[in-house]
Amino acid sequence: DVNGFSRKAVTFGAISATTRFLADVWFIVLYGNANTEKFQQLAKDVYGTYFFFCLTCRLPTLFLFLSTLAITAFLFALTEAACPTTVFITSFDAGVLPSSQFLVFGAH
């Protein structure tokens, strides 16, 4: 049954995905037909720097990460209700195996 945490995770993922889509559309509309000189003019902020462009150009990636995190939380919540032991073992393996090189390096 999808309720409680699962519903919140799906809602958060949908909001993140929609926001990412809107940010992508904004950048395509704003910079899509720009050549090098026009892009340099458009990307500058009111202070004459590229600082705020550097911050905002990361928004689609941030929202992609948040959307992926939300769908992962949703799937973990659903599978945890069906078989919690399998979820724990699989999550443990997925965390330990990629980081085992650091554990061996630390012990060495």
Protein architecture, described:
With 108 residues, the chain is mainly α. It has one domain (5-83). Helices cover 82% and strands 0% of the residues. The chain contains 5 helices and no strands. α1 (5-31) runs antiparallel to α4 (59-82) and α4 (59-82) packs across α5. The longest helix has 27 residues, at 5-31. It starts with a helix and ends with a helix. The mean pLDDT is 90.
Key words describing this protein structure:
flat, mainly alpha, 108 residues, single chain
Compact summary:
By secondary structure, the protein is mainly α.
Distance between the termini: 47 Å
* Total count of helical runs of at least 4 residues: 5
How do the helices and strands follow one another from N- to C-terminus?
Answer: HHHHH
Could you tell me the number of beta strands?
A: 0
In terms of DSSP E residues, the strand content is: under 5%
**What characteristic shape results from the CA principal axes?**
flat
Task: Give the secondary structure arrangement, pairings included.
Layout: H1 5-31, H2 36-43, H3 51-56, H4 59-82, H5 84-107
